[in-house]
Fold:
Amino acid sequence: MKLKLIISFLFSFSALCEEYYFLKQNSIPKFYETGQGKLGLCGQIYKELRKNLKHKNITMKVDEPLYPIKRILLKLDKGSGHVFCGAGKTPEREKKYIFSKKPIYTVNNVVVAHADEDFIPAKLEDFAKNRIMVGAYFGTSSSEFIKSISGIQVNDTFTNPDEAYKLIEAKKLRFFFYHDLALNYAVEHSKYKMKVVPVKFRSIEQWLIYSKKLPKNVREAIEAEVEEMYKNGQLQKIWQKFLVL
Structure:
């Protein structure tokens, strides 16, 4: 019995001494590049979690490069990254990763178009009815969702939203489907002549997802801090800076 307790203690101590990594996506304003002097929505969540977990002797670092979502999921698979903020749920992802108990924030799926665009779809099926090609961000849950709508032509080869914005500016792509967090920011801050079409197609809860190679006690410590951020209003304060609530 004593031997089992010692082994359990040593395992837990070893886990707490290791370093674990938060991952960043190439999606502004969820994340910004290092050196820009500001933190995005998830960057601020990471900052709070890192500070609070340090008091529990858990070292969380941020893997600073901005990765496409497919690369992030691959790193979670391999265990070279451990936690990612801002993932939508899909059946496939639920098989491969562990999702947080509560969503970390909520966004809405919308489309962005050229400022001169006069077609306003009431529902996604209107794109199919009018045979309009819609762009989507490769590998995201938003892309998987719109591709599931019968009859819609989807170009989801974009691995960075800016690639789609350039085509919209040139009027070579009429619509790009993603979430309002990113698209509202793009319209306000980018150089492109675009607008967000004022139709919300669905609301999507976004979650923390964990690599299955992250030790359970570390995951539970993160979950406890997320719960505390809900209770003390810290999450809500971060949301107010970025989301239309």
Notes: Strands lie at 19-25, 59-67, 83-87, 98-99, 105-114, 134-137, 154-158, 175-179, 194-196, 202-210. The two ends are 53 Å apart (CA to CA).
